[in-house]
Write a structure and sequence with these properties.
The complex is a heterodimer.
Chain A (H helix, E strand, L loop, with lengths): L5 E10 L4 E10 L2 E6 L9 E4 L4 E4 L1 E6 L12 H10 L2 E6 L10 H11 L5 E6 L13 H7 L3 E3 L8 H13 L3 E4 L4 H4 L4 E2 L2 H6 L3 E2 L1 H18 L2 E4 L5 H12 L4 E5 L1 H5 L3 H5 L15 H12 L5 E2 L8 H4 L16 H11 L7 H8 L1 H7 L14 E11 L18 E11 L2 E5 L2 E2 L7
Parallel strand pairs in A: 1-4, 1-5, 6-7, 7-8, 8-9, 9-10, 10-13, 11-12, 13-14, 14-15
Antiparallel strand pairs in A: 1-2, 2-3, 5-16, 16-17, 17-18, 18-19
Helix pairs in contact in A: 2-3, 4-7, 7-8, 8-11
Chain B lengths: L16 H18 L13 E6 L5 H12 L3 E6 L11 H9 L5 E6 L4 H8 L3 E7 L5 H15 L6 E5 L6 H12 L3 E5 L15 E3 L2 H4 L5 E4 L4 H5 L6 H8 L14 E3 L12 H4 L6 H20 L6
Parallel strand pairs in B: 1-2, 1-3, 3-4, 5-6, 5-8, 6-7, 8-9
Helix pairs in contact in B: 1-5, 1-11, 2-11, 5-6, 5-11
Classes of the chains: A alpha/beta, B alpha/beta.
């Protein structure tokens, strides 16, 4: 780690917070962005980063990550997850509450914050909405917020009771808290393991209908009309959900939404093509091609605000079992940015521009969670990601910093990768490898 | 004789019409062995097979075990309830352990769809899927086709109606793939809650009235109705199912006069099929079972036969 000033020269600066996209130099000093100017004179004693041919963006923020810490640190822990984030170009991540014990009180929030102080990137805890994620009693959202929780979610599970959800939204409104929902009607979910459709019919796997997500989403949007407060929808996966959020936004409801890279890039055919590989098992499931197209449309027209990985690390032993027995989840911290950069460089998605992508990965999550970052405005925190759009990498989970290996993208060759990650004016990743001494988990 | 050029038999979806024809042809030679007084050939002497059944089975298990004995293979059978699965060992570890004892072929029945794919990836031994969840039961599909082929002399252009719980049936899936590849027309019938929601992937026509589906059919296949489907709310009662969808002489009146009546077993007499049909002159239900041994002998021969000291 270095506390020196950092001088970044020659790069293309993309700052979605002020629609800035041109070549300029930057000076980072005292953990903040000091200057962004053309032909900035190199200050003496500053560490110089030559960013010619590279892209300089606000530090990327992954607002949906499972760190498994406390309780399941054989899958991941706060430190390994933070190293994976740094390697993947993220400067900040939000950690979901479904740990063991559940992050449903201020002590666990403080534990995460304490461990985060020695991690490679900023870690923002998300507290549970209900105690033990059981959907019965409201968790102490106010005390958790005071301890540092940035949002509240029972993610991994829906809040099944309509009245519980209604109360939680009303209460959260009172304390200015954001609620993030995992939309799933358990009775429609029905023990499914993949998307319900022609592929599940062929494979003989129990299907999860789109309605499982959409029915719960309709309910929550309806509640939001009277409760006040802000609602964020995690990992949209269906065309119907995109349309529901689009309509809610046009009615002026205070709702935001995210999508994962795997839902943007893969369909349920992947389950078949990989011969039932459990690395394709994820909740919400990989959906149809029509859904996938609708998610891109929603992302491009602003219905979907942010991209988040839903990094769900699992130990290889947990995934090396029969399909029904495997846990849901895809690990994404180290693949999200390269996968999306590859979509930009290949031109496969019409109208997908680099500034738009950067906005979805930095400014949007910063605004939704109301946290620092997402901008290169002088005076703001010196969190930056430097990207090489031409670098070719191959997804190799064996070389990950995450403890997990569960990805359906292994072996993919991608064009575009992060080369530097800077958090608070300190380099935490250089050339793909974490830089500095971080406590190992 | 020609040898099957594949390591595993996981399903009929991935099998070609040529391969199916080869298996059926070979099964016909094997059936000849079954008609002998001394039903034993030395073809697979010194070869080892594991029968791994994680689900109860009478017909399929007995049929595979007899096929192995008639071919002189050495075999060992393990039932899921007695295996180390209950002690927490993974499927992969269980089979790898048996594999290093010299087993070259694993016959597996398992309640989870795709398990045989997973196993085939994990071990070097050949894997024959003896039924995986709701996915496929390829040897049942092959023996059903063998039975039809023996009776009708051909499979192409036959109309085959499969009636009952298609959604949860691995037998239906294997028959749909196999028969379609061999040029037959397959239609399915049952209450909508027991049909796959999306029939597009399976590429067959579906009916909600049995009478329509069996119109002009050459073959009518009933599927077993599981009581647990009623408990999960997919239909109201067995007696209502029988009234509306059960196969009776009257209900299949529109089928061809020489239509074959089939059932993969075990049958619920008086529920999905009436005894007069099951025991009637057009029924080939017991022929299916005999054909099962021949087809399984053929598969063992084609997978293991020619690979050593031919």
């Amino acid at each position: 780690m270095t506390n020196k000033d950092i001088y970044i020269t020659g790069g293309r600066i993309i700052d979605p917070s002020r629609n800035f996209d041109q070549k300029a130099d930057l000076l980072l000093r005292g953990g903040l962005i000091e200057k962004v100017e053309k032909n900035l004179q190199p200050p003496t004693g500053a560490l110089k980063i030559d960013a010619h041919e590279l892209i300089v963006t606000p530090g990327l923020i992954d607002m949906h990550v499972h760190l498994r810490d406390p309780g399941q640190d054989y899958k991941e822990d706060i430190i390994s997850g933070s190293l994976a984030a740094a390697a993947g170009g993220f400067t900040a991540i939000a950690a979901m509450a479904n740990t063991d014990p559940v992050c449903d009180n201020s002590s666990v929030v403080r534990y995460v914050c304490d461990r985060a102080a020695r991690a490679a990137v900023r870690i923002y805890p998300i507290g549970a909405v209900t105690k033990g994620l059981e959907g019965k009693e409201m968790a102490e959202m106010g005390r958790m917020k005071q301890a540092g929780a940035v949002a509240f979610s029972d993610d991994g599970k829906p809040v099944v009771s309509g009245m519980m959800m209604r109360n939680a939204l009303q209460y959260a409104f009172g304390i200015g808290a954001l609620i993030i929902v995992h939309e799933e009607d358990p009775s429609l979910f029905g023990g499914g393991v993949m998307n319900e459709g022609s592929v599940s019919s062929v494979l003989g796997l129990r299907g999860i209908p789109s309605q499982a997500e959409e029915a719960m989403l309709i309910r929550d949007l309806l509640l939001l009309k009277t409760t006040g407060g802000r609602l964020h929808i995690a990992h949209l996966s269906t065309a119907g959900s995109v349309e529901l959020v689009r309509r809610a936004k046009s009615e002026g409801l205070p709702v935001t939404a995210e999508v994962t890279p795997h839902h943007l890039l893969l369909t349920d055919r992947m389950v078949k093509n990989t011969g039932y590989s459990t690395n394709t098992k994820v909740n919400p499931p990989l959906r149809s091609e029509q859904d996938r197209q609708a998610l891109w449309e929603g992302l491009l027209d602003g219905t979907i605000d942010a991209i988040a990985s839903d990094h769900a690390p699992h130990h290889p032993d947990d995934k090396e079992v029969e399909y029904d027995f495997a846990p849901f989840g895809i690990a994404g911290l180290e693949t999200t940015l390269p996968l999306l950069l590859d979509e930009v460089s290949s031109g496969r998605v019409k109208n997908l521009t680099l500034p738009l992508l950067i906005e979805k990965l930095s400014l949007a999550p910063a605004r939704i969670l109301d946290i620092p970052g997402g901008t290169l405005q002088p005076g703001s925190v010196a969190d930056l990601t430097i990207i090489d759009l031409k670098r070719i990498i191959t997804v190799n989970p064996a070389a990950w910093y995450s403890k997990s290996r569960n990805t359906p993208f292994a072996g993919r060759q991608l064009t575009g990768a992060p080369v530097w990650t800077i958090v608070g004016g300190k380099i935490v990743m250089e050339e793909g490898a974490p830089a500095g001494n971080f406590e190992q988990g | 004789m020609q040898i099957l050029r594949r390591k595993d038999i996981l399903g009929l979806e991935e099998m070609s019409a040529e391969e199916i024809t080869l298996i059926l042809d070979t099964a016909r030679s094997m059936r000849e062995i079954l008609q002998r007084k001394i039903k034993k050939v030395p073809t697979l002497r010194g070869r080892s097979v594991l029968n791994l059944f994680y689900e109860p089975s009478t017909r399929t298990k007995a049929s595979f075990e007899l096929a192995q004995k008639y071919m002189s293979a050495d075999s060992v059978s393990v039932a899921g309830s007695s295996s180390s699965l209950v002690k927490g060992e993974t499927l992969k570890d269980t089979v790898r352990n048996v594999e290093v004892m010299g087993v070259e072929c694993v016959i597996m029945r398992h309640p989870v769809s795709g398990s045989s794919h997973y196993l085939a990836r994990s071990v070097e031994a050949s894997v024959i899927n003896a039924g995986d969840g709701m996915h496929e039961h390829p040897t049942q599909g092959l023996l059903d086709m063998f039975t039809i082929w023996e009776k009708k002399g051909h499979l192409e252009e036959l109309k085959v109606a499969i009636v009952g719980d298609i959604r949860h049936s691995r037998v239906a899936r294997s028959n749909i793939w196999g028969l379609t590849k061999m040029g037959a027309e397959v239609v399915v019938a049952g209450p909508p809650t027991l049909l796959p929601l999306d029939m597009q992937g399976l590429g067959v026509k579906s009916y909600h009235r049995v009478e329509e589906a069996v119109e002009g059919a050459d073959v009518i296949m009933a599927l077993r109705l599981q009581k647990e489907r009623q408990e999960s709310g997919l239909f109201p009662s067995l007696r209502e199912y029988t009234d509306l969808y059960g196969l009776t002489l009257q209900r299949i009146a529109g089928a061809r006069e020489d239509a074959l009546i089939m059932h993969p077993g075990p049958m619920n007499r008086g529920v999905e099929i009436s005894s007069e049909l099951a025991d009637g002159s057009r029924s080939v239900i017991l022929k299916q079972v005999t054909g099962g041994v021949a087809v399984r002998m053929a598969l063992l021969y084609l997978l293991l036969g020619g690979t050593k000291e031919e």
